[in-house]
Design goal:
heterodimer; A: 137 residues; alpha/beta; 5 strands; elongated; B: 235 residues; mainly beta; five-stranded mixed sheet; 10% helix
C-alpha cells in the first residue's frame, strides 16, 4: 500500500515537473518578483532608523478616504503632477516606500519601477503587506 | 476492487466538474490603446454552465486602474453575462499586465469559486525617455546628464527644439534615423527602425537649489507628447 502510494506520488511529481518545465515560461499570470520589496516589520525597522517618504499608489478616491500620515499621492492616473509633488518633498538620500492596498495589488510595484527608471533614484521600496496596521504598535 | 476505484474516480470527477460553474470566452485579452481616451472598456463574456443561477459575489483588480462591473450580477442558469473593466488610461504608458479576480457563488454549499481574468494593455509612446528627471546634488559637480529619447517606429514624430530655462544648457543630437532608400531586402526592417536622440543637460552651477523644467517640443499628433517635460532638480 505504501509502495503504491509512493509510486503514485512520484508519478504525479514527475508529471507536474514536466508540465512546469514545458509551460513554465508561458504562464501569463506569473507575477515577476517585486524589486525592493519590504514587509511591514522591515519598514518599521527602517522607520526607526531614519525619516521615510511614503507614497500612496492607489486611486485618488482611495487616497482621499484614508492614507498613511504625510503620505503623498503618486499614481499613474496623474503621473506628472504627482511626480512634481514627490520631487518637492524628496530629500537626497531619503528612503521612499510606495504602498497600495495589499499583497495582491501591483500598482505600488509599477509606480516604484517607473519612479526608479525616470529619476534614477536608488532607495525606492515597495511595501508588500497591507498598510492599514501601520499605525498599530 | 478495480471497478470500485473507477467509480470513485468518476464521482470525484463529476463533483469537480460541477464545482467549476463558470467558463470564459477569452480569459486573456490583449489591448493596444492609441490616441486620446479617458477610459477604455475591456469586456469578458462569462457562461454559467450550471442548471441553476450563479451570482457574482466579488470583483477585484490588481491594478487600481479603473472600475470593474458585472452585468448581470446574477447569471441565469446556462446563460451568459459580462465582466467589464473600465480601464482608466490616465498617464499610464508602455506594456502593463493586470489580473481581475471574479468570485462566483453557485448556491451550492461551499461552492464559491474564483476565476482569474487577465489583460495585457499596451499604450505605445511616440517618445520614450530613458529618464525624465535630471538630478544634481547641491554644491556637487555640474556634470552633464545624458538622456536617451527613443521614437516609436509606428508613431513617427520629430523633436523640433528644446526649450530650456536660464542657467541650463541642452544639446540634442539625432543618433539614428530610418534610411531614406534602403535596399529591398532590408526595407521592411529599416522602415521600422526608430530614431534615437541624445539629450545632454548641464547646469551652469549647482550652488543654488532649483526645481525647473526643460521642454522637448515635438510634432507628435498626440497633444500629451507635443511638449515633453524633463525635470531639472538641484537639491
Amino acid at each position: 500500500m505504501i509502495r503504491r502510494s509512493a509510486l503514485l506520488f512520484l508519478m504525479s511529481l514527475l508529471g507536474a515537473s514536466l508540465s512546469g518545465l514545458w509551460y513554465g515560461p508561458a504562464i501569463i499570470w506569473r507575477e515577476p518578483p517585486v524589486t525592493g520589496a519590504l514587509s511591514l516589520a522591515e519598514a518599521r525597522q527602517l522607520a526607526a532608523q531614519e525619516p521615510l517618504l511614503w507614497l500612496d499608489a492607489r486611486s485618488k478616491a482611495a487616497y482621499q478616504r484614508a492614507h498613511l500620515p504625510n503620505a503623498l499621492w503618486l499614481s499613474e492616473d496623474a503621473w506628472q503632477s504627482g511626480l512634481d509633488r514627490f520631487l518637492q518633498a524628496w530629500e537626497p538620500g531619503r528612503a521612499v516606500i510606495v504602498y497600495c492596498d495589499q499583497r495582491g495589488c501591483r500598482a505600488s510595484d509599477r509606480v516604484a519601477t517607473r519612479l526608479r527608471k525616470e529619476t534614477g533614484f536608488a532607495r525606492i521600496h515597495v511595501l508588500q503587506d497591507d498598510w492599514h496596521p501601520w499605525s498599530a504598535p | 476492487m478495480a471497478r470500485c476505484r473507477v467509480l470513485w474516480l468518476m464521482i470525484v470527477g463529476l463533483t469537480v466538474t460541477d464545482l467549476v460553474a463558470l467558463s470564459v470566452d477569452q480569459r486573456h485579452q490583449m489591448v493596444t490603446i492609441t490616441g486620446e481616451h479617458a477610459t477604455v472598456p475591456i469586456t469578458y463574456t462569462l457562461h454559467n454552465d450550471l442548471a441553476r443561477p450563479l451570482r457574482i459575489t466579488k470583483l477585484h483588480t490588481s491594478c487600481g486602474c479603473g472600475t470593474v462591473r458585472a452585468e448581470p450580477r446574477e447569471i441565469p442558469a446556462e446563460g451568459s453575462g459580462t465582466v467589464t473593466l473600465d480601464y482608466q488610461v490616465g498617464e499610464r504608458v508602455g506594456r502593463q499586465r493586470y489580473m481581475i479576480t471574479v468570485s462566483a457563488d453557485s448556491g451550492a454549499e461551499g461552492a464559491i469559486e474564483e476565476h482569474p481574468l487577465h489583460v495585457t494593455i499596451d499604450v505605445p509612446q511616440p517618445f520614450r525617455l530613458s529618464r525624465t528627471v535630471a538630478f544634481w546634488r547641491r554644491g556637487g559637480p555640474a556634470q552633464p546628464i545624458v538622456i536617451t529619447i527613443t521614437g516609436h517606429p509606428d508613431l513617427p514624430a520629430q523633436i523640433l527644439r528644446v526649450d530650456c530655462p536660464q542657467g541650463i544648457s541642452a544639446q540634442l543630437t539625432l543618433q539614428t534615423t530610418p534610411a531614406d532608400d534602403p535596399p529591398a531586402e532590408t526595407a521592411a526592417a529599416d522602415a521600422r527602425a526608430a530614431p534615437v536622440w541624445r539629450l545632454e543637460l548641464a547646469p551652469e552651477t549647482t550652488t543654488t537649489a532649483r526645481h525647473d523644467k526643460v521642454f522637448l517640443i515635438t510634432d507628435s499628433e498626440q497633444p500629451l507628447y507635443q511638449r515633453l517635460p524633463v525635470t531639472v532638480l538641484i537639491k
